[in-house]
Amino acid sequence: MFDVKKLILLGLVVSLVAFSGCTEDQASNESSMTMTEGILVVGTDPTFPPFEEKNTDGELVGFDIDLMKALGEKMGLEIQFVEQPFDGIIPALKAEKFDCIVSAVTITDDRAKEVAFTNSYFDAAQVIAVLVDDDSVQSVDDLAGKVVAAQLGTTGEYEAQHYAEELGFEIKSYEVMADAFIDMENGRVNAVVTDDGVAQRFLDTKPGVYKVVGEPMTSESYGLAANLDNQELIDALNAALAKVKEDGTYDEIYAKWFDN
Asked: Is CATH 3.40.190.10 correct for 126-218?
């Protein structure tokens, strides 16, 4: 004869396990793309104008910032920015400090081993900036024996390191790009290797102080980055990127920051 009490107890246990399983699956599905439902936490280093910087009121502004806000609207997600120095931004992403990165991150093979990238959203190049009255540097070969500045962890720093070994010059790395240009004005470095859009921003900010010389050192593309196991977020970001390019939003943001 069946023990009714045992059957009832067994039924409760089975139901509890099934209910718990459904709850975990639902929670996993709801939060798999972002750490917090409805919110996309984005890491950025606001020291790289005009892509990301702080205005006089301490607010985050820039091309990347506006683009990320537009993507958030397309995705139906609130955007929250977290500031992180660039040389530690990928480790912070992997430690789940934020869901993704927007910070003028160049897509490279080495970085693609650590993070997943979206489709390219911006084309760039590494260039050499010097003081406007300095005619001693006309090309990368003229950097031999000089002191060259670059920002920590950037492809500008990587490219400078590559040529430093070949040509023989000293590299001085900075956390903040503006400090590199200030030191160049004060004679502490002879040249700055940085992205062309960034160099142009400093040229525009101080007309007659800096100039760009020689041919571009690289041809690069920026991408948004997420963790390797978050393809769902990458797909959603790519879909949103396609939408802002199709409806003209991207062109409006570009014109705001680059069409002088």
From this structure: yes
**Chain segment 201-234, per-residue pLDDT in tens:** 999 999 999 999 999 999 999 999 999 999 999 9
pTM: 0.85
The whole-number average pLDDT for the span 55-83 is 98
Which bin fits 214, alpha (ψ -120 to 50), beta or left (φ > 0)?
Answer: left
Asked whether the predicted pLDDT for residue 158 surpasses 80, the reply is: yes
* C-beta separation of 118 from 111 below 8 A: no
| Fold adopted by 39-123+221-258 | D-Maltodextrin-Binding Protein; domain 2 (3.40.190)
Where in the sequence of the chain do the CATH 3.40.190.10 domains occur? 39-123+221-258, 126-218
Per-residue pLDDT tens over the stretch 77-136: 999 999 999 999 999 999 999 999 999 999 999 999 999 999 999 999 999 999 999 999
